[in-house]
Amino acid sequence: MRITLVGSRHFGVTTLNMLREHHVTLVRVVVHDGEDRLAAAARAAGIEVVVQADPKLVTAAEIAPDTDLIVTAHSHARVSREALAASRLGGIGYHPSLLPRHRGIAAVEWTIKEGDPIAGGSIYHLADRMDAGAIAAQDWVFVKKGETARELWERALAPLGLRLLAQVIDYGKVNGSLPAKVQDEQFATKAPNLSPGKH
Fold it and tell me: Where is the Formyl transferase N-terminal domain (predicted)?
């Protein structure tokens, strides 16, 4: 399976490392900042790096030719419809909530603010609306009393994201397609002043 990874920062790097150990071909890494640690890790591994022309949008030209799957990991850019069409299986991202709950950029913070006893993660298909595509995999974790958003992310949600991404990619390698369950809009939460979500 040929993968184009779109991402940034520490989660981008840990996703890159997981993919490299997972017997897939990482054909390109797309970043919004050429100085990002993900760009440095990709270059060190001999993987082609492309810097987005527009930090808020990934275009079809930025996706590697013959890509089977686009994977996003800590990317705040929207992957265009044309870019998704350039990939055989489209694209998937990880969102650190039980979608459709807590869509948007501050999912882990909202989990803590709302006092949710359970948090979770979702692998979802990239779509026109942020965090609204069909679910490919989902799992949950308990929230510890007094835990901060950062602690919850580092202890449970980041490792969960890597495990779920690996699970969906393995499924795709075996079946040539990805699971897809439409999100139930009646459970979407409405949080005030949330900016567009990260993938």
Answer: 52-157
Amino acid identity, position 93: G
pLDDT tens-digit profile, the chain (199 residues): 999 999 999 999 999 999 999 889 999 999 999 999 999 999 999 999 999 999 999 999 999 999 999 999 999 899 999 999 999 999 999 999 999 999 988 999 999 999 999 999 999 999 988 888 999 999 999 999 999 999 999 999 999 999 999 999 999 999 999 999 999 988 998 654 444 444 4
The Cα 114–Cα 129 span in angstroms is 24
- How far apart CA 54 and CA 67 sit, in angstroms, is 21
Q: First vs last Cα of the chain: how many Å apart?
A: 21
CATH of 94-121+136-171+178-191, one of 2.40.50.690, 3.40.190.10, 1.10.3720.10, 3.40.50.170: 3.40.50.170
Q: In this structure, what are the phi and psi dihedrals at residue 184, rounded to the nearest 5 degrees?
A: -90, 105
Q: What is the dihedral of CA 134, 140, 146, 147, to 10 degrees?
A: -70
Compute the distance between CA of residue 98 and CA of residue 49 in angstroms, rounded to an integer: 31
Half-sphere exposure at residue 183, Cβ-oriented, CA atoms within 13 angstroms: 26
